[in-house]
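Appendix B, example 12.
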Amino acid sequence: MTFKWQLNKTTSDENASNVRQLVLEMDEGLRGSGLPIEGFEFIHSSKKMLDITRQIENDILRSQQPSSLYVGFQSIEKLDTEISRYEELINNNIEVKAFGIGKPKDEHKHSLSTWVEIPKSVSLVENQWFLVSESPSPIAFVGWEVSEEIFAEGKLSDPGKMFEGFVSSDERVIKSLLQHLDSVYMTKSQQPMDADGLSSFIGRKVEKVMLVTHDKPEKNMPFEYTQMIKDTSEICGKLESEVILYDLSAASFFVEPGGHGDSAGQRWKGLLNRRDLELLGRNDLNKQMGVIDETNVNAQALLAEKHGFVSIHKAALDHNVDLVIVPEYYENPSLIDKIVGNQLSNLDDYEATSFVVYDVEGNFKPFN
């Protein structure tokens, strides 16, 4: 399930709504083989959008439990009239991650946890009026400004000011939008993070993490994996998520992934435990899983059926993975890896499942 959070400006019908088209594409892209998007309403009224905004803020304040709220202000000036309200949110242990044009001033610093400065764009969702949160009630509201000549300027009541948007409680919409916003945030920051930093940075639920690795002795690896395994375990422990080790070395044009240890016909497709790996002769992968087991994080393994990061992306989507961690080696791998598609640059629409790079310094950084 993939979706690009950007208006398509190439429609041939001048009377067609670009926002409504985006919503239709969202439904098609996120439903997969499941049901249509649920808990959804399309909105034209800016007054109703403001009412929804207040309801979301009030719901979070009433819950009195720590949570994260992602907010689109369009520009920092829009925060000026909201300072006291967002200070109240901050004072109630709500992490406020805000997006918009411009730089915060001193008077804004107590009303924001994080400000993500972005360039002006009338088509990208991060430039719009939005509120997204997973708790206490999963909700995503986006008000898309269609008055492009006065985009992000003035007040809601100004002549010519127009918005189209939607509100949804469908977890597929919320998850996809939060993944996109986290990717924007991490890309803009351009700061490598350690395991503690990355786990603190992620403001959404992460139930599954996939780690791309190899079933090969460490000395034969193009990267050193012991610390990568430990750091991934630390992240999963903090996020209360499980990990899937994706054995890229299993892919071959000559034998099935379970071939060299599969003479007894043991299964190799699907998620595997340590006993499965032992029967399949995946000894080094088994050792990696053992390192994770010591941290009480639930771990399973998946053997690659095909070469290439397109296959990794598909596997991540098939198993509902929220975050994929990839060794830095695959940004610029050896020639043979490039030829068979084992290179990060082969990915398209990767935000649908966020990809993060693990570098040689033991830090995590955005893939862009």
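The radius of gyration is 22 Å. The chain has two domains: 18-181, 193-366.
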